[in-house]
Specification:
This protein is of the alpha/beta class. It has 14 helices and 5 strands. α2 crosses α3, α3 packs across α4 and α9 runs parallel beside α13. The protein starts with a helix and ends in a 7-residue tail after the last helix.
């Protein structure tokens, strides 16, 4: 997947809306993490003795903190770093995967997906790294095989139908492209988008840069997301941000339809409106992680 696909998009409207997928449009974050990511981590990393602790730590990192919605490999590093400091893990001498090479790869690669990791593993045939790749591939295979019929949150489709009357809509995601495209197609939402970008297109910040950078006035570009990473990507590009607050998704979409979108199109989004909703968003995602 090439970011040039996003760069080649030509504006059809004066406004641009980037929109995240998992946990923002679809109520899929919890089911993916709890039923696919965690069970495969238990199996591939053989962490049965600390299954409860792994689940608690994993959910804290991936669902209930400022790290929510991060790239799976970066999140994996955070989970194992936290577990390595846990007294139970130390006491029972639980063997955790060596993530040193993974950290090296994360620091030097901007397309953090299975394809690029596979190439890195070929050059660095480390057993822990191979196991991490197998885990990630298994997660994708299981989600593709089993996960179906996850509908969008209430108020999403009406919001999208209003958005596309005035703005170009592009999906900005760190979900693998195959999965995010399939989920949008299953719900008939793909027809509303100019493009659907997954992790193979680079970071969210890079996706926004390629899709919207230099094509629209900055105050006419907005990102909608449910994670701090979405906010960070917006700030890196100097654009606006509207949060879908975890646990208040349907309410957030209703607010966007009734308040957010109108003030965005009127050029009045920046200022108190954005400040207040971002402050509420930050309060919903604590910085403290379970150790």
């Amino acid at each position: 997947m090439s970011p040039e696909i996003l760069s080649s998009l030509k504006p059809q409207h004066d406004f641009f809306v980037g929109i995240d997928s998992d946990g923002c449009v679809f109520d899929s974050m919890e089911v993916k993490q709890k039923e696919f990511f965690i069970p495969n981590a238990l199996k591939y990393f053989e962490l049965w003795p600390i299954s409860g602790l792994l689940r608690k730590t994993w959910e804290s990192v991936n669902l209930y903190s400022i790290n929510r919605g991060g790239n799976r490999f970066i999140s994996l590093i955070k989970v194992f770093d936290l577990l390595s400091k846990n007294e139970t893990v130390k006491k029972h001498r639980i063997l955790l995967p060596d993530t040193n090479l993974l950290k090296q790869w994360v620091a030097t690669e901007n397309k953090l997906g299975n394809d690029t990791l596979r190439k890195f593993v070929e050059k660095h045939p480390d057993s822990s790294l191979k196991k991490i790749l197998l885990w990630s591939e298994a997660v994708n295979e299981d989600i593709t095989k089993w996960l179906r019929n996850i509908p969008p949150f209430e108020n999403v489709k009406p919001a999208i139908e209003k958005i596309i009357k005035a703005a170009d809509l592009v999906v900005i995601s760190q979900t693998p492209s195959e999965a995010v495209i399939r989920e949008w197609k299953e719900n008939g939402l793909d027809v509303y988008t100019r493009a659907i970008a997954g992790q193979e297109y680079g970071t969210k910040s890079e996706q926004l840069k390629h899709a919207a950078g230099g094509k629209y006035d900055k105050d006419k570009v907005i990102m909608i997301g449910d994670a701090i990473g979405d906010l960070n990507a917006s700030e890196a590009n100097g654009i606006l941000f509207f949060p879908i607050i975890p646990g208040k998704e349907e309410e957030s979409w209703k607010i966007f339809i009734n308040e957010g979108l109108p003030v965005f199109l009127e050029g009045k989004f920046l200022g108190d409106f954005q400040k207040n909703i971002i402050n509420e968003f930050r309060r919903s995602l604590p910085e403290n992680l379970i150790m």
